[in-house]
Design brief:
This protein is α+β, with helices and mostly antiparallel strands. Helix content is 15%, strand content 34%. The strands form four sheets. Strands 1, 13, 14, 16, 17, 18 and 19 form a seven-stranded antiparallel sheet that branches. A six-stranded antiparallel sheet has the order 2-3-10-5-8-12. The N and C termini lie far apart (47 Å).
């Protein structure tokens, strides 16, 4: 039988020869370039969202941060991370709902907002991290005097790929029992009989003031920066199952060594000014600028004024659970 006829028969049966696949020996792709959302440019555009709609009509008033590398119809910021800014006016309420996607909230402007997670109230002040783990009920209310903004980060792109995204509106049902955060306020000592779910942190709020204290005692990482990780106190792992959060601190004038990972990250500048080299791109930054760090780019940070503190969200926990996480300093083997 002629080769052309063989290929026709295979195509009709939805078969393809692996040895002829263009992906069989495909080299690693060139890392994506980073992208920065300057807060000076972003903030006026967020103001327009306040006049455009309300949580009462659209569930959540949110503007997504979209990767310039995405294809038509895709929604992602970097890797398996989807980031957005949520906006709430004084007196507004965003009704509770839950979904299989994990979400984290990092407060960046305003005060007086409370996020309620599985019935537990979590105050949101500048620099605070609030978790809404997968399938936890969560809603927001704003009792302050000025508009509030916070960074939302979810693992939506991963769920879109896996086909596991499920959303449930109110009324709230099957609300698990929770405990007050003071239960886990003593380092290295936790209850012998934990209450509720244990696959994510029983703490939902991580105050910025506590994070600063932890950074002051943290040893330098291999690249020279100090980093602390927001963890689940029950097992020492990431605070949520698939979204990993860290805070990095740089001293004035400090320049870190070039380092890269095969995970993707999003940086939000909390304090200080500086610049980062990400692959072949130099990116300057100041407070509330948001920057993507696509996988496999070598990264170095230079703090110009500080100390600088940068909140980092990464999908490395996905890589770790798949036993695929890799990282190395420049000059070391990958």
């Amino acid at each position: 039988m002629e080769t052309e006829e063989i290929r026709r028969l295979w195509r009709e049966a939805n078969l393809e020869a692996l040895w002829e696949s263009p992906n069989a020996h495909k080299p690693p792709r060139t890392p994506d370039t980073p992208f920065k959302w300057s807060w000076d440019a972003l903030r006026p555009l967020l103001e327009l969202a306040f006049q455009e709609t309300s949580p009462a009509s659209v569930e959540r008033r949110v503007l997504q941060l979209m990767s310039p590398h995405r294809a038509e119809g895709e929604e992602w910021t970097v890797g398996t991370i989807q980031a957005a800014i949520q906006c709430l006016k004084p007196g507004e309420v965003a009704r509770p709902h839950r979904h299989t996607m994990t979400a984290i909230r990092f407060q960046i402007e305003g005060s007086g907002v409370t996020t309620t997670v599985d019935g537990k109230d979590c105050i949101m002040e500048y620099g605070d991290l609030v978790l809404t783990p997968n399938w936890c009920w969560h809603g927001h209310r704003h009792e302050g005097d000025v508009p509030a903004l916070w960074l939302d980060v979810l693992d939506v792109p991963l769920h879109n790929y896996l086909g596991t995204g499920v959303f449930q509106p109110p009324p709230m049902i099957e609300v698990p029992e929770t405990v007050e955060d003071a239960t886990y306020s003593v380092a290295n000592v936790v209850p012998d009989n934990p209450v509720g779910r244990t696959d994510h942190s029983p703490k939902f709020r991580y105050p910025y003031v506590d994070t600063i204290k932890a950074l002051a005692k943290a040893p330098p990482a291999p690249d020279g920066a100090r980093r602390v990780r927001y963890i689940n106190p029950l097992d020492g792992g990431s605070a949520t199952t698939l979204v990993d959060c860290l805070m990095m601190e740089l001293d004035p004038g400090q320049v870190t060594k070039l380092y890269r990972e095969n995970s993707n990250a999003l940086m939000l500048v909390v304090e200080g000014e500086g610049k980062s080299t990400i692959g072949e791109t130099s990116v300057s930054w100041k407070p509330l600028d948001i920057i993507t760090v696509p996988q496999w780019n070598y990264v170095s940070h230079h703090c110009l004024t500080g100390p600088a503190r940068i909140f980092v969200v990464t999908d490395r926990e996905v890589m770790r659970k798949l036993q695929l996480h890799r990282g190395n300093l420049e000059g070391d083997d990958a």
